Structures are given as structure tokens and as C-alpha cells.
Amino acid sequence: MLAYEQALGQFQDVRNDFWASKEIETLGKNEMILGYAKSYFKPDEVMTRAETAGLLATYLKLNMNNRKETFTDVTSDHWAVGAINALVKENIVDKSNKQFQPDEPLTREQLAMWFAEVWKLKRGADVPFADVKETDAAYDAIEKLVAAGIANGYEDGTFRPKETVTRAQFAVFFYRAINAK
């Protein structure tokens, strides 16, 4: 929900010196991400899988009218069912799992796999992370995100694929993906 007390894209809990302020403000001004009541963004809260599906399907302008139950844990009246089904149709989300886990936090490896599909990213050099093996399901996707300049690892040489993604982190990844050349 947008609040009207502040200018579009400005959130009272994202100061100018916040590490992701530029990305959050730009996406907010372009109405690609929204905040909460009273102009809060809540940058440290985790992104759920359903929230991510909603943002990606909206960004891609996908048809979100399919409300059938593709996953056992996403009912036809779930707010994100149309977005989730749209991502399945585009082969961004794998429907071979019986559950989608819409309210679970998005992990860095899940984000990598979805973004690699959304933006049709190309492979680059091998992944230089100590915690990502070639046999990992997300290896290629992580490699593509790094090659595109969308993601990089931590200073300790790890990617932390199982770590959850905060709203601020998502905004930065999303901003970079949209602007990747």
C-alpha cells in the first residue's frame, strides 16, 4: 500500500545513507515495488516466495488469470495463485514439486534460479564460491547471476545459497537485473 505523506519512492525507514537506498527509491518511484502503510518499506523483512512471484509476474506483464490449484498449498483463492501459475506457465517456477511454499522466505539460490530464467541469463566463468558446488541444483543459475553482475558473494568467499533474501536485498538484485546489459 502506498502512503501519501511522502513522495513516491521515499520510505521513512530507508534513509539516504542506507546501503540499498538508491535501488529502493528508484524502484519505488517507478512503482515496481511498494511499501507499507505510513511510507514504510521494512527493508530487513524477508521476501516470501509468493511476494517474489507477484513482483516478477507483474514486471513481466504475465496473464495472472489462471486461478486453478497447481500446488497443494496454493488454493484457488490465495492472493498470489495467478502470479504463481503464470510463472509456472513460463517455466520460471518448476511445478514438479507438489508444494510451492508461498509463505516461506525466498532463498538466495531460489532467487538465482528464478532470475536466471526470467532474464534468460548467459553462463560465465565458474562460480568462485566455497559453499556452491557444481552438483548443486542452483550452480548454473548462480553462475549466470554473477556473470551478469546481478549478484556477488560475501567477503568471506561464500554465496550462502540457503540464506533468506530480505526486501532490501531483493530490491538490489531486482534493480541490477532490470538494468543489466
What's the helix and strand layout?
Blueprint: H1 21-29, H2 49-59, H3 81-89, H4 108-118, H5 139-147, H6 167-179
Give a verbal description of the structure.
- This protein has 181 residues and is mainly alpha-helical.
- It starts with 20 loop residues before the first helix and ends with a helix.
- The protein contains 6 helices and no strands.
- Mean pLDDT is 91; it is low at 1-6.
- The protein has helices spanning 21-29, 49-59, 81-89, 108-118, 139-147, 167-179.
Model regions low in confidence, pLDDT < 50 over at least 5 residues: 1-6
Arithmetic mean pLDDT: 91
**Biggest sheet layout:** none
Distance between the termini: 31 Å
User: Measured on Cα atoms, how large is the radius of gyration?
Assistant: 16 Å
Tertiary shape: globular
